[in-house]
Amino acid sequence: MSQGFESLDPLQLHESPFKLIGKDWMLVTAGSLAHFNTMTASWGMLGHLWERPVAFAFVRPQRYTFEFMETYDAFTLSFFNHRQYRETLLYCGTHSGRDVDKMAATGLRPLSVGLNTVTFEQARLVLVCRKLYAQDLTPESFVAPEIDSSIYAAKDYHRVYVGEVVEALVKQETQGVA
Ligand SMILES: Cc1cc2nc3c(=O)[nH]c(=O)nc-3n(C[C@H](O)[C@H](O)[C@H](O)COP(=O)(O)O)c2cc1C
Does the CB atom of residue 39 touch ligand 1 within 6 A? Predict the structure, then answer.
């Protein structure tokens, strides 16, 4: 159990993943408290695979976060109150940790959670993920070529990370809020 959070069985998460990821956005964070980076993501999935709850994150190779996703064996997905933290997530999605201190700029307060990962005190929902699988999207795999030409004009194909959700943490006061 982490400060301010309580564990939640992923089966008891009654929120739409379409809204959580696609509309509210999330922070993908990899590394330890001493060395981590975070970025905003709105592409990803939550589901069930290989007999366990999983989360997918898609990270382009030029992201600073990519280096941390590669180096570390675990990552977190952190979700926030959509209205209150929109600007914070926009900042973390338009600035690179190579150039700025995102914590200083946003006031996010990092917090160590399971698997020696990092989330933020202000998060309302956190998924702690153990990396299971990583693979680059490839142009020849697109059945719909318009996705390749429109999304990957620069040929910067995302690497897909599949993580086992080993722990879900929720702020007690926001549990169940859709
Ligand atoms: C709403 C939003 C969603 C984003 N989703 C993704 C995503 O799913 N995958 C990705 O690689 N980049 C995504 N980005 C871009 C990264 O967040 C952005 O390039 C960020 O500055 C990378 O930071 P870093 O270099 O510190 O890792 C998104 C940006 C925004 C604003």
Answer: yes
* Residues 161 and 69: beta-carbon distance below 8 Å: yes
Atom of ligand 1 nearest to the CA of 90: 31
> Structural domain tally of the chain?
1
The CATH code of the domain that includes 104 is 2.30.110.10
Q: Is 81 in contact with 35 (CB distance < 8 Å)?
A: no
Indicate whether residue 59 lines ligand 1 (CB < 6 A). Answer: yes
Q: Is residue 113 part of a domain?
A: yes
CA-based nearest residue to 13, from 3, 2, 21: 21
Whether 137 maps to a domain, the answer reads yes
| Residue having the nearest C-alpha atom to atom 23 of ligand 1 | 96
Q: How far is CA 52 from the centre of its chain?
A: 18
Query: Which of 39, 87, 95, 102 most suits a substitution to test ligand 1, by most atoms within 8 Å of the C-beta?
Result: 39
pLDDT beyond 80 at 19:
yes
Decide: pTM greater than 0.90: yes
Q: What are the structure tokens assigned to 105, written together?
A: 């700029």
Tens digits of residue pLDDT in 64-109: 999 999 999 999 999 999 999 999 999 999 999 999 999 999 999 9
Residue numbers of the domain that contains 138:
6-173
User: Does residue 135 sit within a domain?
Assistant: yes
What distance in angstroms lies between residue 77's CA and the mean position of ligand 1's atoms?
A: 13
pLDDT score at 2: 73
